[in-house]
Amino acid sequence: MSATYSISELAKEFAITTRTIRFYEDKGLLTPMRQGQVRVYSHKDRVHLKLILRGKRLGFSLDECQELIEMYTPGTSNIKQIQALLDKIAVKRQQLNQQLKDIAALQQELDTAEQRCLDVLKSTDFSQ
Predict the structure, then answer these.
(1) Which of these, 24, 41, 103, 117, is most buried using a 10 Å CB contact count?
(2) What global pTM score does this model have?
(3) Residue 10 to residue 15: CA distance in whole angstroms
(4) Rounded distance between C-alpha atoms, residue 72 and residue 18, angstroms
(5) Cβ neighbours for 46, distance < 8 A, ≥ 6 positions apart
């Protein structure tokens, strides 16, 4: 028989709340079996949860995570999934590079505004 996990075991293993796991379940990302009122998660659910959390750390949306997970086919080379992931990584990298440029420009504007304020204070006669 394959390994199964309770919601609390998965929450503890991945240092997340049970509410987070239920949220992913509500979104259709996890599909646990039920034994009465108890959720029973399979090895597949555990792998999906791990991939979701990794995707979130990389900045992917839940929809992007789901898209990639749904492309996975056990026992195949999954070239289509790998290429889709590479494409998403390229887009994410481009977005981050643009954000870095935007941050640098904002820092320059702040430096300029700060220097103007300092110049005004330096040239102001406070003895009056």
Answers:
(1) 41
(2) 0.76
(3) 8
(4) 25
(5) 3, 5, 10, 13
